[in-house]
Amino acid sequence: MNDIYRIDLGHPTILEFRGPDAARFLNGQLTQDVRRVMGGKISLPSCVTDAKGRLQFRVHILERDDGALWVTGLAEWAENLEARLTRYLIADDVTVTDFSSKFQLSHFTGSPGEAPPGVIARESNRYGVSGMDWWISCDQAMEYPVDIAVLENDAMEALRITHQIPAWGAELIEGMLPPEALLETTDISYTKGCYIGQEVISRIKSAGKVNKYLTRFAFDTNISATLGPLENSEGQVVGQVTSISPLATDTLRYALGYVKRGVTAVWFRAADGRLYPVAMS
């Protein structure tokens, strides 16, 4: 993708952690190494997991210029995310403030140039390409670069699926293991030390396997693809389609889903009962 687009992501949950123990405390709660965002003007994804290493939330973290740390996520998560992250906040010198609905987030799939004064700009790779997040106060009047088009609806979903980016409620659900969604390369630090769920996730890495894994599929546009099961050549269910791009690329329509470990070929059963091969990548 060569063009730069703007993607408006609304008013996410924002929890600010401030104080001398903030980074150390969050490092014990998140799978990401919080120190990576400190001083770097970047935003990184992270998982919040339970003691069994199972996914509870997927968030993004960043540091403000004054050293405060933000943990951000879906708008509807504010209360539950704060309750989970502060559950173990006992003797730490940390102040937590909910800034949800105070800022709006615009993401750019590339560099939009210098951000206006007052905007918190951080490098971010939310859609599989190097980009930029602009956090804009709801009190701030904003004029976006006029030469950057807005990407939304079907085009935004097509971008996400094409670049194999899992979405909450589709590829990401509470209770799954983050490595199943291939998040170990983007969301998880295996060197920073202990956090809630770390023992289980490290054991998965050592074993080198999960029972299923996120996969991108390519359907021929002549096939009326739908969400649902994928089969092997013998008709056994070995996978599941969770998202289908609303837009086609040439003669292909991309999709995301999961296949069982060890599966190297899948077929889709159409409404007429026939099996059609589906490419995996």
Features:
4 helices, mainly beta, 281 residues, 6-stranded antiparallel beta sheet, 5-stranded mixed beta sheet, globular, 12% helix
Write the layout of secondary structure elements.
Layout: E1 5-8, E2 13-18, H1 22-27, E3 44-49, E4 55-63, E5 69-73, H2 78-86, E6 95-98, E7 103-108, E8 120-124, E9 131-137, E10 149-150, H3 153-162, H4 198-207, E11 212-220, E12 228-231, E13 237-244, E14 252-260, E15 266-269, E16 275-280
Parallel strand pairs: 1-10
Antiparallel strand pairs: 1-7, 2-5, 2-6, 3-4, 4-5, 7-9, 8-9, 11-14, 11-16, 12-13, 13-14, 15-16
Structure description:
With 281 residues, the protein is mainly beta. The protein is built from 4 helices and 16 strands. The protein has helices spanning 22-27, 78-86, 153-162, 198-207; strands at 5-8, 13-18, 44-49, 55-63, 69-73, 95-98, 103-108, 120-124, 131-137, 149-150, 212-220, 228-231, 237-244, 252-260, 266-269, 275-280. The strands form 3 sheets. It has a 6-stranded antiparallel sheet with strand order 12-13-14-11-16-15, covered by helices on one side. Strands 8-9-7-1-10 form a 5-stranded mixed sheet, with no helix packed on it. Strands 3-4-5-2-6 form a 5-stranded antiparallel sheet. It is globular. The two termini are 18 Å apart. The model has no long low-confidence stretch (mean pLDDT 96).
